[in-house]
Amino acid sequence: MTDVTTETALSPETRVPTERGMPPRRGVTDALDVVVRSIGPVVLALAAGAILLLALGRDPIAFYSNVWKGGIQLTAWQDSAMRAAPLLLIAAGLTVVFRANIWNLGYNGQFLLGAALVSGLGPSLVGDTARWTALVVLFLVAGAAGAAWTLVPALLKARYETNEIITTLMMSFIGVGIANILIKGPFQDTSVNIPQTRVLPLDKMLPAIPGTRIHVGVLVAVAAVLIVHFVLTRTSFGLRLQVLGANPRAARHMGVKVPRLIVMSFLVSGLLIGMAAATDILGIWGYVRANWNPAYGDTVIPFVFLARLNALAVVPFVAFYAVLSTGGDLATQQANLPTDFLLVLVALILLFMTVIEYLGRRRSLGASYLTPGLEQALRHSRRRRKTSR
User: Fold this and answer.
1) What's the total number of domains in the chain?
2) The CATH number of the domain where 187 resides is what?
3) Model confidence over 2-33: pLDDT tens digits?
4) How many C-beta atoms lie closer than 10 Å to residue 199's C-beta?
5) What is the predicted pLDDT for the residue at 375?
């Protein structure tokens, strides 16, 4: 199979002669491509954020220093590591489904349903069952809830080719509503006035890694990322996903059972997102309140694409955001700003990522954020629209 990235980087139009008249080494081109397309948007967003802070009358140096203090210094890095755990699992789940050129945007509903079930069933289960047995069961329940909530969009996509963006968003709204009904209804803690579930005992939650405050859910998240990376790059399932994402017709011609693969990719994605909820509830919160929605998926998506849909490459981006999010609580408090300012920085990253993508297409700076299959599908869609006009 031809490497599209290599062809683009070494095409006659972009080939830069060296002293011996030979094209530059691929390693140099790839390194420059990573800097421009993956690191560039983050640096530009931080610079733009500094300008915005100056416009608001705040000291950007002090702000970013407080982010460092609150996210890294002393034992703060442990809080950042724990915040990264659910983000990594969601990123891994989205990477799987995006590789197949399928959009699972129902992550909020999948996550909150898993969280509601874990926090609602957890107090009773941990009291009647051995700790590790109860924790494993709760992880499986959350994962099953997330996976089950993708079944309707998956089956509609597989059988009728229904637009999964619409169906997953609709299922997300329904899932968020059902989660709130569970929290305010059968799972509500009647001993408090605020609608919330009962609180899990601290000694029944995920244990800490010896010598730290970091719960073992972080290890589960890292292991899941490694497994997803291996499956996507070293197994036939990963190859079939890539072929499906590149060209569904070619996948069918090669004998790939496309409907089954679509359903499987959705199920794996929902499973990992549900497990992210279990990690967050069993590792940090211990309960869920009504109308709580951390919207982790909304912040993770830009970093998934900055990592070029590479499960391993997304780890440093998620770690960066975890530090930014954890330290940002202190920084925004010291600067007398709302915590939503951090979302502005994420939006700026997405904005600069889009601008660089556009310039990259115009100037042939290197490979796209999208995989070759997604990029080819986008070009094919544009041609069809032009033809229909």
Assistant:
1) 1
2) 1.10.3470
3) 343 333 333 333 333 444 444 445 556 666 76
4) 16
5) 65
- Taking the mean position of all CA atoms in its chain, how far away is CA 74? 27
Spatial contact of 278 and 271, defined as CB atoms under 8 Å apart = no
- Residue 278 in tokens: 């279990």
Number of C-beta neighbours around residue 293 at 10 A: 14
CB 272 within 8 A of CB 143: yes
| Among 102, 95, 110, 108, CA closest to 150 | 110
Collapse the DSSP code of 292 into the 3-class scheme (helix H, G, I; strand E, B; otherwise coil) and give the result: coil
CA dist 352 and 255 (Å) reads 40
Asked, for residue 339, whether it belongs to a domain, the answer is: yes
Are 96 and 265 in contact by the 8 Å Cβ rule? The answer is: yes
* Tens digit of each residue's pLDDT (9 = 90 or more) over 295-330: 999 999 999 999 989 999 999 999 999 999 999 999
Encoded amino acid at 25, one letter:
R
Q: Is 22 within a domain?
A: no
The tokens describing 198, both together, are 């009962």
Structure tokens at 147: 């996976």
Cβ contact 160:146 at 8 Å: no
DSSP string of 45-92, one letter each residue: HHHHHHHHHHHTT--HHHHHHHHHHHHTTTTHHHHHHHHHHHHHHHHH
In a domain, 35, yes or no: no
Give the chain's mean pLDDT.
Answer: 87
Name 196's bridge partners: 289
Phi, psi angles (nearest 5°) of residue 192: -125, 155
Distance CA 106, CA 103 (A): 9
Q: Which residue reads 């009358």 in tokens?
A: 57
Which domain range does residue 163 map to?
A: 4-13+40-50+59-383
Report pTM.
Answer: 0.85
Please check whether residue 192 lies inside any domain of the structure.
Answer: yes
